[in-house]
Each structure stands twice: as structure tokens, then as C-alpha cells.
Specification:
Elements: E1 19-22, E2 29-30, E3 38-41, E4 44-53, E5 59-66, E6 70-79, H1 88-95, E7 101-102, E8 107-108, E9 111-116, E10 118-135, E11 141-152
Antiparallel strand pairs: 1-2, 1-9, 3-6, 4-5, 6-11, 7-8, 9-10, 10-11
Length: about 180
């Protein structure tokens, strides 16, 4: 009888970490652990015309617009227990996504490129929730769970570029500005 051995598969050292690359020159958000799932949402807007009804008496609807994809990275774990450093060093970088950066001519939060082995979207952060849930005996936070909600932005009309500014003829007039007349 010949003995057979089960050889465990080698762990891949090619594991790619997800990253939110800051497209405005600020710090990138490097995830310590990859997300377990990503929830994507996209909605379509329809306008109903109450006066126009079909044979079933339902109102006529017309296509209005397509909203950008929205996605949430849920339960991202940041843990610095082993190094005994505050996990806030990671949280402070993430918080920059919901704070304005100073640049001319506007102030706005940064645009990110979500990358996980391949590029997914150019996006902006729409909300951030973090929970500190482990502390050292001196009160230093060493673990956090983070939820980040992101919204896709159009590559051709990035915030802060001339293409994203509304055209002068399409802007509403400022009621405080005197007009000739």
C-alpha cells in the first residue's frame, strides 16, 4: 500500500489590496483588509404625466435620467493592536474624503479612483461612518470598523475642471446682482 499525502495549496502572495487613490494629490486610502462585499446601486429616474393615460388608466411615463452608480464598502477593518499605535492615523486619512481640500478656484472634497487589481470607478465619498471598538488600557483606540459610501463621477467632467462648470447661459441669475435695464 502506498501512502498518499495531502499537500496544502500554497497561499498566493499576489493578493492585491484595495485602494482609494486620491486623484487630487492627497493621501491614498489603503485598506488594511479587503472588503468582503461591495454593494452597487444605480437608479433610473422616470417622470409620470398624470394627464396622459393609456388604456389601463396608468399614467404615461417618460424617461428622465440615469443616476451615477453608488456603492458602499462595508465593515472595513482597521486594526493596529499589534503595533499598539492609534488606529486614528488611518481614520484621519479616510476623514479627508469628507472634508474640503483647498484649491483654486473651488473648495471641495477629493476625487478618488477605486482600484482593486483593476480600476472600478472614479468616485467621490458621499458618507463615512466609523466605529472605534477596541482600546488599549490607556484609552488608545486600536480597532475600527468603517463604512464608506461612494458615488461614481464622469471621467470627462471631473469636479474642479472647466468641463464640470455650468455654462454661463445656463446659470440662474444672482438676484443680488444688478442687471442693466
Amino acid at each position: 500500500m502506498v501512502a498518499s499525502f495531502i499537500v496544502p495549496a500554497k497561499k498566493s502572495s499576489n493578493l492585491k489590496k484595495a485602494i482609494l487613490k486620491n486623484m487630487d494629490g492627497g493621501q491614498d486610502i489603503k485598506l488594511m483588509f479587503n472588503p468582503t462585499d461591495i454593494s452597487f446601486t444605480r437608479t433610473i429616474s422616470w417622470t409620470k404625466n398624470d394627464g396622459n393615460r393609456g388604456t389601463t388608466l396608468l399614467p404615461k411615463i417618460s424617461f428622465s435620467s440615469v443616476d451615477p452608480y453608488k456603492f458602499t464598502l462595508k465593515q472595513l477593518l482597521f486594526d493596529t493592536y499589534e503595533t499598539k499605535e492609534s488606529v486614528m492615523k488611518h481614520i484621519d486619512i479616510i476623514k479627508q474624503g469628507v472634508e474640503t481640500i483647498k484649491q483654486q478656484p473651488d473648495s471641495r472634497p477629493p476625487v478618488y479612483k477605486f482600484i482593486w487589481d483593476k480600476e472600478y470607478f472614479l468616485c467621490v465619498m458621499t458618507s463615512l461612518t466609523y466605529t472605534l471598538n477596541m482600546f488599549l488600557s490607556d484609552g488608545t483606540p486600536v480597532r475600527a470598523l468603517v463604512d464608506i459610501s461612494l458615488q461614481e463621477v464622469d471621467k470627462s467632467m471631473l469636479p474642479g475642471t472647466p468641463a464640470s462648470a455650468s455654462a454661463g447661459t445656463q446659470r440662474l441669475p444672482d438676484p443680488k446682482v444688478a442687471r442693466p435695464g
